[in-house]
Amino acid sequence: MVTITDKAKNRIEQIMQEESYDANYFVRVAVESGGCSGLSYKLNFDNEEKKGDQFCEDKGVKICLDIKSYLYLAGTELDYSDGLGGKGFEFHNPNASRTCACGESFSV
């Protein structure tokens, strides 16, 4: 299961409102090959379920992961930062053995 912080929840709700996404949309979180550490995070909004998708919900936000990503992201917390260090979503992944300095890629 992936959890989210209150800041991430608020930002997700803001984006959904700005983009006029209805209740059929959910947050799709995935892992792709690439990045300086070997694997990178991907986050977007979707309204189409794919075969093998795994769903969870936290703080009223529906989160979707494909089966491969689920194995890498189980226990991950999604946060949002708007501080001086930069704006954006951050992944706190307990499965990552190494992350790059920018936090956008990891390895296990």
UniProtKB/TrEMBL annotation:
Recorded GO MF terms: 2 iron, 2 sulfur cluster binding
InterPro entries in UniProt: ATAP, ATAP_core_dom, Fe-S_cluster_asmbl/transfer, FeS_cluster_insertion_CS, HesB-like_dom_sf
One annotated Gene Ontology cellular component of this protein: cytoplasm
SUPFAM superfamilies assigned: HesB-like domain
Example GO BP: iron-sulfur cluster assembly
Superkingdom in the source lineage: Bacteria
Domain Core: 2-104
Family of this protein: Belongs to the HesB/IscA family.
Protein name: Iron-sulfur cluster assembly protein
Species assigned in the record: Sphingobacterium paludis
